[in-house]
Amino acid sequence: MARAKVPGAAPDVTPEYWDEACRHLVKRDRVMKKLIPQFGEARLKLRSDPFTTLARSVIGQQISVKSAQAMWERFLALTTTPGSRILPAAVLAQPVEALRAIGLAARKTEYVRDLARHFEEGNVHVKQWAQMEDEAIVEELVAIRGIGRWTADMFLIFHLMRPNVLPLEDPNLIQGISENYFSGEPVSRAEARELGEAWAPYRSVATWYIWRSLDPVQPLPAEK
């Protein structure tokens, strides 16, 4: 399966498969046929480095898109200067109390510091990720404290731009499926998985449009 050419890519790179994926989804799915045209030329864009993407995903775990955005902005204000890139060393330099003061829960504070420590000490194989299969990357990432399946899936979608990820651990995806396909009725992960089979091999793209349907304005995790 073709993969986006991420290594060394400049900011604002869009997956090369996106237009093909949209055509496929519009043909296969009645909701996507209506949803995709609503967002015109909007596309998923690569705008961050691996550490930033993972840190943002950790911070955004199990909270709404709006809440995650607000928390991330406070985190950036604490750990960077305007226009600069967030660095693992800068996160480690912050006292635990300072991270807690911006609203990070105690556990998330531990997790984001542990993530920074893994990057700072070279314990993650960033250069090999582009050649690895999705599940192999997931296995490596979930070995890091605080990174579960949800965070690994966000990384596959937003940084490696893998086309066929269905993040069933994401509450916003489940909510979006409920609202767009089941008139707001509760949806199980099994039902979401079955629905997502029709989106293959572009489940990441369908997921992105489901997220957008919930809030067309706010940036998604790792998109700013």
UniProtKB/TrEMBL annotation:
What's in the keyword line of the UniProt record? DNA damage, DNA repair
Q: Which reaction does it catalyse?
A: Hydrolysis of alkylated DNA, releasing 3-methyladenine, 3-methylguanine, 7-methylguanine and 7-methyladenine
Catalytic EC class: hydrolase
HhH-GPD domain location: 59-215
Name under which the protein is recorded: DNA-3-methyladenine glycosylase II
Q: What is its EC number?
A: 3.2.2.21
Any stretches that span the bilayer, and where are they?
none
**PANTHER family associated with the record:** DNA-3-METHYLADENINE GLYCOSYLASE (PTHR43003)
Origin: domain of life:
Bacteria
